[in-house]
Structure formats: structure tokens, C-alpha cells
Amino acid sequence: MDILKVAIVGGGTAGWLAANHLGLVGVDNKQLSITLIESPDIPTVGVGEGTVPAIRQSLKKFGISEAEFITRCDATFKQSIKFVNWLDKDSHGDNNFYHHLFDMPPVMGKELTQKWLANKYRAYAENVSPQHAVCEAYKAPKNISDVEYSGSLGYAYHLNAAKFADLLAENAKTRFGVNHLKANVEQVILGNEGEIKSLVTDSHGCLDFDFYIDCSGFASLLIDKALKVPFNNKAEQLFVDKAVVVQVPTLADEKIPPFTISTAHQAGWIWDIALSTRRGVGFVYSSQYMDDETAVKKLDTYLNGQLSAHQFRTIPMTVGYRARSWEKNCVALGLAQGFLEPLEATSILLTDFAAGFLASRFPRSTQQLTSMSSRFNQVMEYAWERVVDFIKLHYCLSDRTDSQFWIDNRDPATMSDELKQRLALWQKFVPNREDFFSKFEVFDLENYLYVLYGMHFSTQETTEMNAELTELENYQKRLIQVTKQLVDNLPEQRPLLEKIKMYGLQTV
């Protein structure tokens, strides 16, 4: 049977990202009909307000103007995650920090890393990229004269998640003809072989489709409640399971950091994301090591005693992912597929990755479901497991001893075999491209380099160099010159954003 009618259950960022990715498929398949069913009673969770650079490619593919996106979603540029106090204060100083930059180390990255290991005379990121200095100078990654979705340095965005979902919805409906129904799904009817046959809604009756995408968030109406796909809980590896979240207004002339601030505390960490008019702040912690009352008090301290002046809420987090993201004629995306703490903006990243991968291999008939679902599940399991490893890396490398939370995170029993093998290898050799053999590693070599050596991971020094020493020295001299030019010539965030809203950006 041909697959011609697709239902996406749930809106928000996940649902409308899926609608746009599938809408692109529908451009070449005029028979494909896509309907997004969104509950009018369930608000957007709105936690994921950080992205990674890959989102630029998706927005460009969808045909969304970067200037419009920035204006409508209160977006700011994000060039890095600045990790503060993830190392012991006595050994590395109070407010010690490192940058996980979005600008990739150069072709001489290995040689620069080897030279840095020999003396470590400054921060690793500062040694390989001009973006470290640009971030510390609070400069943007581009100028008003740069074309859309390009700049002098790699970047992503901070954004208002609710406004982002609205923009994606408008684009999917107007550009790709996605149907939009406001309704609550009251019942899921299964067919003779356990597949989803139809949905019973409160305002549109019984609706039949050929294929279903579950974007219903933590409720997981289809993949969990109807199809009973089990959940792979990762609490034994990643301990944090709660977050206290709040939004704090900012002053109109306040400088906007071009990075997410991630500040570690005794039992977790705090995210601090600056938009043009407010900051989104979340105190992430493990209830096994800290009670709710203490968490609220510590967030209040972080906000200089101002927490009571704002509305805040506590969000429970079940960390893990579905054993099978694709079951029968249903694929789960977004929070319905899984959730990890938002340390590296993993929520939108994995949703965008999975939706794009599904769209690139979308089944044309039910005869293709078995083989395609098997491949999809294999890829997604690998992707999720490697993301778990990357998040765990931040904890197990820390030398903090001020609480049992950090000590327990270094226990090898809480790490995957793959992560333990990689760390053992990297004690002897600088990581290289061949260590990341799959293209489905959503965090790759460069990401690991910034975190490993930002946290002072020890790799055996080597004198072997693939590049001539003079060539390396010349490159470093050019790096110093480029850094100064960028710091001097790039604008600060707020003035640039105001110009973009007024004049727009050049299109290609």
C-alpha cells in the first residue's frame, strides 16, 4: 500500500521541524499529504532555547530568511558554550572556564594540539581558533554586510522556542502546504498487525492516515501509550533529573554574551542563555544529591536574591531514549523519542538530525517499513549512545571533589565501554578523525578536542609532527593576526541585531 497520508501528532519545535523536513519531500511527491494535529490545551515546554550550527543548514533549506528568523524569534548569535567551574577551584582557580567553540580547529589542528600539550601556556581553544578571543570580547560572528547564514566564524543561535515553533509552523503551512488541525487525540486505534490504524480526536472525529509521527512530547501518545515501545533509561550514566527554570528580563543596553554560560555547582550545572530582552536560566541538578529546597535557594543565590521576583517552575527530567524510535508505521521525534539534559543543546540537535534523516529516506509504501525502520533504529540508537557519551565526558573528566556527585561521576562503572576505550586510547594519542568512524556521530572530533583539552585531559606528549615546524610557527603568527583583525572589526551583538532588524541581511 502506498504511503500518501502522514499525520504528525504534536506541534512545538519537534512537530514543526518534522513538518518542514517532510514538506521538502512533499515538493517532489505531490501525492503526499501532511497533517499536523496539535492540542490547543498543551503549551510548549520551551526549555530548548539553544541550538548548534547545523540548524543554519536546515533553516536555509526550508527557505526561511535569516533576518526574519532573528527578528521574529528574538534570536541572538551563539558561538560557544562557556563552561565555568567544571574543574576544581583550588587547583584551577575560582570561576575557571573553557570554551567549546563552534569554529572548527584548522587542518593543522593535530599539530597545534601536540604543540599545546608540550607547554599549555594558554587555554586550548585560544591556541587553535580566533573565536575564543572574539567570544571573550563579546563580539558577533559576522557583519551586517555578510550574506545570510554565513559569517567570519561558525555560529548557531539562542532563540525563543515558542516563537520559533510559530515561525516554523507558518513556513510549513504556506510554503509546503502542511495541514494544521487543532484537536486533542483521545484514542489511538490499532490495526490487526499492531500498526496504528486511526486517531480519534475530540473535534474532528476519527482520522485515518498511512504513517504517523509522534511529536507529543513527554506524553508519547503513540510510541509509548499505544505501541508500548520500552524506554532505555540512562540515569545510571547521567545523574541529573530535575531543573528549576526561570526567565529574567534584561536591560535594553545590556551586552549580550555570544555564548551559552554553563556554570557547574555541587550537584549539576546552571544554564544561562541571553536573548535580546531576557535571559533564560535553568538550575539543573540530581535529586539523588540535592533536594528541591536547596536547589531553589542556590538558584536564588545565582540570581543575586532576585528569584522570588519572577515566576519559576521545576521540571522533572527522565533521561534516556526509546528502545526503538520507529515502530510499525510510527516514528517518534523530539521529546517523544528521548531526552537528555540540555548541556550541549542536544534536544533540538537530535530532533533536527532525526527529522532530516527520516525525510531523506521516507518510505513510499508499507512494504518498505520493515527494512527502513530497522536501519533508522540502528542509526538513532548509535546517535543517542554517542551523545550520552559526550555528555558524560564533561562529568567524568572533572577533578572536582567538593561533593559525592562529582566523585561518583568519575566511577568507570557509570561510563559506557566505548567511552572508556576512547579515553584509554586518548591518554596515549591525540584524537584524530579515524577515531570517529561513523557519519552518525552528531558530536565529532572537534567537539571532543575542545572538551578534552578544555578540561585539561592528559595525553602523552609526542614529538612527532606531520607539518614542518616553521610552517606551524607561520600558521600561529597568522592566527594571531587574524584574531586581532576579527576582534577589532566584528561588532558587538546588540548593535548588529538592531541593524539586522532594521535593514535585513544580504541574500545569496
TrEMBL record:
It comes from the Bacteria. FAD binds at residues 11-14, 185, 335, 348. InterPro entries: FAD/NAD-bd_sf, Flavin-dep_Halogenase_NPB, Flavin_halogenase, Trp_halogen. Pfam families: Trp_halogenase (PF04820). GO terms for molecular function: monooxygenase activity; nucleotide binding. 7-chloro-L-tryptophan binds at residue 78. The active site is at residue 78. Keywords: FAD, Flavoprotein, Nucleotide-binding. L-tryptophan binds at residue 344. This is Tryptophan 7-halogenase. It comes from Shewanella fidelis.
